[in-house]
Design brief:
The chain is of the alpha/beta class. The chain has a domain of 202 residues: NAD(P)-binding Rossmann-like Domain (Rossmann fold). Helices cover 41% and strands 16% of the residues. It contains 9 helices and 12 strands. The strands form 4 sheets. Strands 2-1-3-4-5-10 form a 6-stranded parallel β-sheet, sandwiched between helices. The chain is globular. The protein binds NADP nicotinamide-adenine-dinucleotide phosphate.
Length: 298
């Protein structure tokens, strides 16, 4: 089996590249440099040249606030490219695993969103990701879309690493406490993807859209609290966390108040259960702090 990973340098892409794939599988990564999702001809050529059995698209325009003023670029990468990936995969007989987001929902209701709930994105990023879902569905039946949320890992930029940095620098950190969601370790997204790819290779792929996110749900302040508890355990000091309201932290993009995802469908179809993000947090911080510790080479 040959797997082509697009966006291989991102949080999820990098975890896919260092993930444990079945023996004998060939896994090749492409970054923006060698497969630019915003340049259709180069993207098509990169996929056709590789002749993969499965394409995993981990590339995306993920700057949620910047997207508000950069609509065309966000839609080119998130909205149009997944359709091109799907069409090109169809031409070479490949299946596609793609990622989408909790931000396709407006988050106005309590409870967890299922895959059948209507989407209603609040901002350009969410709208562009919704467009990409539609473009991939229209292009190729043999697709799996994993909608995930609040991704963190030791590789790349994310909320957990930002909190670790701010908490190390400041006596007090203000964090939004009235948005709820599901933190998801990037490594578990990679592991779920590899399990799904294995099922596809065995002729047991279940196609469609699935939610995959960590448990239990929390707020950004709840996630920051967990980071600071780890900080105290490791360093003996922690900042004061000041919970604030969304209204006190204005951003260019509006975000859903409740973007908790129901992950029952992927459990039923693939036997993949939502990971506990709290256990993964410790592992991620082990790697993060080891990489930034004084005296570590590189
Ligand atoms: N991060 C989250 O909290 C979150 C939440 C829900 C869903 N998701 C979804 O999960 C997936 C993986 O996200 P992630 O957290 O791994 O994102 P990430 O760390 O931002 O990685 C995205 C990667 O895509 C690359 N990329 C951007 N524009 C590109 C282009 N034109 N051509 C090729 N590559 C391009 C980026 O490269 P550069 O570094 O060069 O820009 C980066 O390496 C995405 O589909 C995202 O929408 C993420």
């Amino acid at each position: 089996m040959k797997v082509l990973v697009l966006g291989a340098a991102g949080q999820v892409g990098a975890e896919l590249m260092r993930g444990v794939w079945p023996p004998g599988w060939q896994v090749e990564g492409r970054t923006r440099r060698d497969a630019d999702l915003a340049r259709p001809e180069l993207l098509r050529a990169a996929i056709l040249d590789a002749r993969p059995d499965i394409v995993v698209n981990a590339g995306a325009y993920t700057a949620v606030d910047r997207a508000e003023a950069d609509r065309d670029a966000a839609f080119a990468v998130n909205g149009t490219a997944p359709g091109i990936v799907g069409q090109t995969a169809a031409a070479c007989g490949a299946a596609v695993i793609h990622y989408s987001t909790d931000y396709v929902f407006d988050g106005a209701r309590d409870g967890a969103r299922t895959e059948d709930d209507p989407v209603s994105p609040l901002g350009v990023y969410g709208a562009s990701k919704e467009a990409g879902e539609g473009a991939l569905r229209a292009a190729l039946d043999r697709h799996v879309i994993l909608r995930t949320s609040w991704v963190f890992g030791a590789l790349g930029a994310n909320f957990v690493r930002t909190m670790w940095r701010l908490g190390s620098e400041r006596p007090e950190v203000r964090v939004v406490a009235d948005q709820r969601g599901c933190p998801t370790p990037a490594a578990t997204i990679a592991a779920a993807t590899i399990a799904i790819a294995g099922r596809i290779a065995g002729g047991e792929g279940r196609w469609g859209t699935f939610h995959f996110a960590g448990a239990p749900p929390t707020s950004w302040a709840g996630l920051a609290e967990a980071v600071f508890a780890e900080m105290e355990r490791r360093t003996g000091r922690r900042p004061v966390l000041v919970p604030i309201a969304t209204a006190d932290y204005p951003t260019p993009a509006r975000r859903p108040a409740n973007s908790v995802l129901d992950c029952g469908r992927i459990a039923a179809a693939y036997g993949i259960v939502a990971p506990d993000w709290r256990a993964a947090l410790s592992v991620v911080l082990d790697e993060t702090t080891a990489a930034t510790a004084p005296g570590v080479a590189g």
